[in-house]
């Protein structure tokens, strides 16, 4: 199977590429713009280790002639490429609309023109947030209620994929996954930001009260589910991927402090995110029904392995941590110390 993997130099895409080349009978071409979120080190060595099975094309998913040519040369498109960070989307919403919406439309058009299979990677954030005490989780039938420019752009992209399925016969599946963690995630995101802070002798930073809940899944479990959908999913269907991993952000920081042997109060509260979604939770029945199951059941153990990866690979994150912290410094203020009246 010849796969075109858009966004394959980012966090989830690069883990997908490594795992796929090791475990599946496929060749892979990565199409990635190699912007700030991509790390060339994430794909280093693949061309040597997998001669004639791996190729990197540096380019934009909005470049229609390029996308058209590449889609024509492959059997399946796995579409990860996106602007992916909520905080960045609050600063520059149009960048998100361009890549996530227009870029996805271009990928759909090429897939229709050449009758190719598309798997579109999306997020549970398209559903908006749940109340802390809501007994329901997100299902494929949950209404879309995105709250940030990021989630609005991903929601719009999902709608376009469905419109191309219905109107033009696009052979596609969609998956909406919960928050991923694991190696090679950019230090602008919550878990690697805190890990790299601790490894740099700095304090973790919790937005607002820290009582917001995210539903964590290991990136390898997400990518195994994507393969299951490519191999056994029904065309036109949407699959929800999650691993019953709900934790408050304060709890995640408590685990990380414990893993590195730091004082449990050694973190700070900072300015909350505007429009901060309270809680996400996935009902993954649609993907479990295909025979997929998450393997990383112990979140704390998965976090400890992730900390070990960042400890062993400081050259991977040093520059991107600096850039991420410069971004945050423009707007972030410390509002309280760990364990004080503002939080947990
Ligand atoms: P990421 O930001 O780490 O990677 C995105 C990659 O896309 C980067 O390598 C970037 O250079 C590339 N890219 C951006 N714009 C591009 C363009 N115009 N042309 C070509 N390449 C471009 O993001 P991620 O966390 O790996 O997320 C990948 C996908 O998974 C996204 O679609 C995201 O919405 C989705 N997703 C992420 C999570 C999560 O927890 N990170 C959860 C569910 C779904
Ligand atoms: P993030 O990794 O940005 O993912 P998302 O917004 O897609 O869920 O943030 C995860 C959670 O962590 C979210 O509730 C915001 C919070 N957060 C912090 O508390 N501190 C931080 O430094 C960051 C980056 C995020």
TrEMBL record:
> What are the GO BP annotations of this UniProt entry?
nucleotide-sugar metabolic process
Q: Which reaction does it catalyse?
A: dTDP-alpha-D-glucose = dTDP-4-dehydro-6-deoxy-alpha-D-glucose + H2O
Keyword Lyase assigned to the entry: answer is: yes
What GO terms are given for molecular function? dTDP-glucose 4,6-dehydratase activity
Xref: Pfam families: GDP_Man_Dehyd
Q: Which Gene3D superfamilies match?
A: NAD(P)-binding Rossmann-like Domain (3.40.50.720), UDP-galactose 4-epimerase, domain 1 (3.90.25.10)
SUPFAM superfamilies the record matches: NAD(P)-binding Rossmann-fold domains (SSF51735)
Necessary cofactors: NAD(+)
User: Which residues belong to any copy of the NAD(P)-binding domain?
Assistant: 4-303
Its keywords, alphabetically, are:
Lyase, NAD
Can the keyword Cell inner membrane be found in this entry's annotation? no
State the EC number(s).
4.2.1.46
Tell me where on the tree of life, at the top rank, the source sits.
Bacteria
Q: Which family does it belong to?
A: Belongs to the NAD(P)-dependent epimerase/dehydratase family. dTDP-glucose dehydratase subfamily.
Name of the protein in its database record:
dTDP-glucose 4,6-dehydratase
Q: Which organism is it from?
A: Corynebacterium choanae
From the broadest rank down, the organism's phylogenetic lineage runs: Bacteria, Bacillati, Actinomycetota, Actinomycetes, Mycobacteriales
């Amino acid at each position: 199977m010849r796969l075109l993997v858009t966004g394959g130099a980012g966090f989830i895409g690069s883990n997908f590429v490594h795992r796929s080349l090791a475990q599946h009978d496929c060749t892979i071409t990565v199409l990635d713009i190699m912007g700030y979120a991509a790390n060339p080190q994430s794909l280093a060595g693949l061309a040597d280790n997998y001669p004639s099975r791996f190729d990197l094309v540096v380019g934009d998913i909005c470049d229609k002639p390029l996308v058209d040519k590449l889609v024509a040369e492959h059997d399946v498109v796995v579409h990860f490429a996106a602007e992916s960070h909520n905080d960045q989307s609050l600063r520059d919403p149009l960048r998100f609309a361009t890549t996530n919406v227009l870029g996805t439309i271009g990928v759909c058009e090429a897939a229709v023109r050449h009758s190719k299979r598309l798997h579109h990677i999306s997020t549970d954030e398209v559903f908006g947030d749940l109340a802390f005490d809501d007994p329901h989780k997100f299902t494929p039938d949950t209404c879309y209620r995105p709250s940030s420019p990021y989630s609005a752009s991903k929601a719009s992209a999902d709608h376009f994929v469905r419109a191309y399925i219905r109107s033009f016969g696009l052979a596609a599946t969609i998956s909406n996954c919960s928050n991923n963690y694991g190696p090679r995630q950019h230090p602008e995101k919550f878990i690697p930001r805190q890990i790299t802070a601790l490894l740099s002798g700095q304090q973790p930073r919790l937005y607002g009260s820290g009582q917001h809940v995210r539903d964590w899944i290991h990136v390898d479990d997400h990518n195994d589910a994507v393969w299951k959908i490519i191999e056994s999913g029904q065309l036109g269907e949407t699959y929800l991927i999650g691993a019953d991993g709900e934790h408050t952000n304060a709890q995640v920081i408590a685990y990380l402090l414990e893993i590195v042997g730091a004082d449990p109060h050694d973190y700070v509260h900072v300015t909350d995110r505007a429009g901060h979604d309270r809680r996400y939770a996935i009902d993954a029945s649609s993907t479990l029904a295909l025979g997929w199951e998450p393997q990383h059941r112990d979140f704390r153990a998965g976090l400890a392995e992730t900390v070990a990866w960042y400890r062993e690979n400081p050259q991977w994150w040093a520059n991107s941590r600096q850039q991420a912290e410069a971004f945050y410094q423009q707007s972030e203020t410390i509002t309280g110390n760990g364990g004080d009246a503002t939080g947990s």
